Amino acid sequence: MEVTFLRPRIVGTALSLPAHRKIAGDVTKVALKDAFREILPDYVTVRRKQRFPCPMSQWLRSELCRTLRASATWSVADLWSVTREQELWREHLEYRRDWGQQLWRLATARAWWRSVSTYRR
User: Fold this and answer.
1) Which domain holds residue 34?
2) Host H or E run for residue 43
3) How far apart are CA 8 and CA 24, in angstroms?
4) Is residue 74 part of a domain?
């Protein structure tokens, strides 16, 4: 899959634009919206930025869960209880509570810590 707006030529062009062509007040992507104004309907070019919902809770009840849960055997600098984290996993997988965001944060903190700890050695 290719992400068109991340092509080097497009990124280079975007970075070379003056600030007022990128943001004007609270309007972002000014140059992009101007370029497509005649093609796109107004509700697309004038709407405010919208959240991109991520189905994290569902993902953490799928195959991804096995990998992340298996690595939940240690805490970053003992900042949280691994026992409590395992309880969160149980409650999440049994649909008793939605702990998706919290579990994802713990997993990413652990991955980050592992990467910086390896780098420091």
Assistant:
1) 4-45
2) helix 42-45
3) 24
4) yes
